[in-house]
Design goal:
Length: 406
């Protein structure tokens, strides 16, 4: 699977850097065109000459090298690769990636990349388990970076735990799997709604909710990773759209409804957005002022369109699978199942929003379907997304659900 591929290997500081030399040798043996960047930290453990000799190409080390920038340049290094691999990925380079820093050739190249990035972290076990490192890992995962968890075993520092860089043969196997991966949802079209909607009262104020959009964005990314052609329609959030998806930004429920209907037909619709049920009947053209000794004017609300139900009951373009979300505060399963039936969707993922899920990176959901309900353990929202996509793949693997939208 590796034959004919081009891989950019970034080697950061750490004793495990010596394994990168064997990785280069095996990649060359697999007929891979390999370019290498060696960081200043990496040069404390192996030399540019060793890397260049094994890769049969110059080893790039300096962002400010006129020769290197003329010969290849950090932009071309990333653009001309099929995959960027960081092995070993130290805690330091992981932290700098998470912060979007570009203070050397490696981080500048990573920030300027439009290709998939795969990290093989290697560090002391306590560094790996440190909340700061794990927060950085979660940030990068949310951005679509592939993280290969380190192995367990004896460390060079004399400690034992999780933090070892896998052997070169194991890294080769992982790379083969990446390139050989049959995208289970290739040819399928998916619609994902995410985030809140804001229903304006006047040019300053709006009715909204506390949805962060994190779960919906994670689902869009997971669907795209499996080859689906994804359109993500999002209300106002602070999130960066996942790479590889078509992104549509909206504000109100009416705008989201219009965008969703324009996205049909599709095979899969996952409605995670926390759409406001009501909106003011009239938006004031000027800021509504508080009047002294005068009671506030009553607010008249009108019902917003039901996006989930509209998609589920579309007479001509109903997706083969429609998934909704239910944010509940009590009787979670009965309310979620009632919503699934009343909205005529296939599945509902329900969560108890009293359990501190708004804005956090974790979630716990109950998968409700026509045969019952299944509680999934509390975990990262990215893992919830992956589990949902696994269920979607299983659904479409059945003979009656194979039809794709062309």
């Amino acid at each position: 699977m590796l034959k004919g591929k081009t891989i950019l290997l970034i080697i950061s500081g750490g004793i495990a850097a010596y394994k990168s030399l064997e990785l280069i040798r095996l990649l060359k043996k697999s007929d891979v065109a390999i370019r290498c960047i060696l960081t200043a930290g990496g040069q404390k453990f192996i030399t540019p000459l060793s890397v260049a000799s094994l890769s049969e190409h110059p080893c790039y080390t300096d962002l400010w090298s006129l020769t290197d920038e003329t010969d290849m340049g950090h932009i071309r290094l990333s653009r001309e690769s099929d995959l960027i691999v960081v092995a070993p990925a130290s805690a330091n380079i992981i932290a700098r990636m998470a912060q979007g820093m570009a203070d050397d050739l490696a981080t500048t190249t990573l920030l300027a990349s439009d290709k998939k990035i795969m990290l093989f972290p290697a560090m002391n076990p306590l560094m790996w388990s440190n909340p700061a490192t794990q927060a950085n890992i979660e940030t990068l995962r949310a951005r679509g970076v592939i993280i290969i968890d380190p192995a367990q075993g004896d460390m060079a520092c004399g400690e034992t735990g999780t933090g070892r860089l896998p052997e070169a043969t194991e890294m080769i196997a992982t790379l083969n799997t990446f390139f050989d991966k049959k995208k289970a949802l290739s040819g399928y079209k998916a619609l994902v709604t995410a985030g809140p909607t804001h229903e304006p009262l006047d040019p300053v104020r709006y009715i909204g909710n506390r949805s962060s959009g994190k779960q919906g964005y994670a689902i869009a990314q997971a669907l795209a990773d499996e080859g689906a052609e994804v359109t993500l329609i999002s209300g106002p959030t602070s999130l960066t759209p996942p790479p590889g998806v078509t992104f549509i930004s909206v504000e109100t429920a009416q705008e989201m409804m219009s965008a969703a209907l324009n996205t049909l037909p599709c095979n899969i619709a996952v409605c995670t957005a926390a759409v406001a049920d009501w909106r003011p009947d009239v938006m004031a053209s000027q800021k509504i002022k508080k009047q002294e000794n005068t009671p506030p004017q009553p607010l008249t609300l009108v019902e917003n369109p039901d996006i989930l139900k509209t998609i589920s009951t579309h007479p001509a373009q109903r997706p083969a699978l429609v998934v909704g979300f239910a944010a509940e505060t009590d009787q979670v399963i009965p309310h979620a199942q009632h919503k699934r039936i009343s909205k005529k969707c296939d599945w509902i993922l329900a969560n108890d929003v009293t359990q501190d899920v708004f804005g956090t990176d974790n979630n716990q959901v109950i998968w409700c379907h026509d045969s019952g309900a299944e509680t999934w353990p509390k975990t990262r929202k990215s893992e919830i997304a992956q589990k949902l996509v696994e269920k979607i793949i299983l659904h479409f693997s059945s003979s009656h659900s194979r039809k794709k939208v062309s």
